[in-house]
Amino acid sequence: MVGSHPTFNQPIHFRYINALNNQQQLITWIEQDSQLMSWLGCLETLRIPQACIGAGAIRNFVWDKLHGFEQRTPLNDVDVVYFDDTDLAAETEQHFAQLLKATLPEVPWEVVNQARVHQWYVTDRGQAVPPLQSVTDGIATWPETATCVGAYLEQEQLRIIAPHGLNDLFDLTIRHNPTRVSHASYQSRQSQKKFHLKWPKLTQAQN
User: Fold this and answer.
1) Residue 45 CB-half CA count within 13 A
2) What is the pLDDT of residue 121?
3) Pairwise CA distance, residues 99 & 1, whole Å
4) Which of 204, 147, 158, 139 minimizes the C-alpha distance to 25?
5) 116 or 14, higher pLDDT
6) Contact 195, 204 (CB under 8 A)
7) Main-chain dihedrals φ then ψ at residue 71, nearest 5 degrees
8) pLDDT digits (tens, 9 = 90+) for 63-89
9) What's the farthest any 2 CA atoms get from each other in the chain?
10) What is the pTM of this model?
11) Beta pairing partners, 153
């Protein structure tokens, strides 16, 4: 499932072709990467509801490729998101994380049920937000449009989730996604992440 972030100086048919090309390129790169495929295979085997690997694990992988890096940028964690609104227990997230670690203990798994994100918005931030309705709904709220990407295997077929499209990811563009992240929080995150120091070809969109 891939959307398309509009690039208004291009005709619609070029935007559509670019979106298809970006999707196919991402699928090809992931399929050729033994590490990512082993992570995705592990996830598929465990049958976690609507589960995918997303955020930095995919974003960094693409930006490393586009920069021609021979060494992969280290990850603080590998984000696994899933959706199960019938079980909002934090213990279930921990159980899935333990299963993943038992299979691939060297991977820094981080597991979050998107169906319970609204709960920790209240407890951690004192902010009431509507519950998310799916894993795609959750991915669509992440801070940068280029970060809003996930991948998963379905019957050994690689699928991509990109609710804001893949143009910003492949154009090396950092763009604020205001869906749930305020401009102040976004700016603070950019100062912390220092994306430009790791990937100097990045450009900042002026939304």
Assistant:
1) 11
2) 75
3) 27
4) 158
5) 116
6) no
7) -105, 135
8) 999 999 999 999 999 999 999 999 999
9) 49
10) 0.88
11) 158
- Let me know if 102 is exposed, middle or buried by CB neighbors in 10 A (0-12, 13-18, 19+): exposed
- 159-181 as b/e: b if 16+ CB within 10 A: ebbbbbbbbbbbbbbbbbbeebb
Instruction: Tell me whether residue 80 is exposed, middle or buried, using C-beta atoms within 10 angstroms of its C-beta: 0 to 12, 13 to 18, 19 or more.
Output: buried
**Domain annotation for the chain: domains and CATH numbers:** 12-204 (3.30.460.10)
What is the rounded end-to-end Cα distance, in angstroms, of the chain? 24
What Å distances lie between residue 89 and 2, 119, 194, CA to CA?
A: 30, 11, 34
- Cβ-based neighbours of 197, under 8 Å, separated by 6 or more: none
DSSP 2: B
Select from 45, 28, 25 the least CA-distant residue to 167. 25
Rounded Cα distance between 88 and 47, Å, is 17
Angle (nearest 5°) at CA 89 between 83 and 87: 45
Using CA atoms, how far apart are residues 145 and 91, in angstroms rounded to an integer?
30
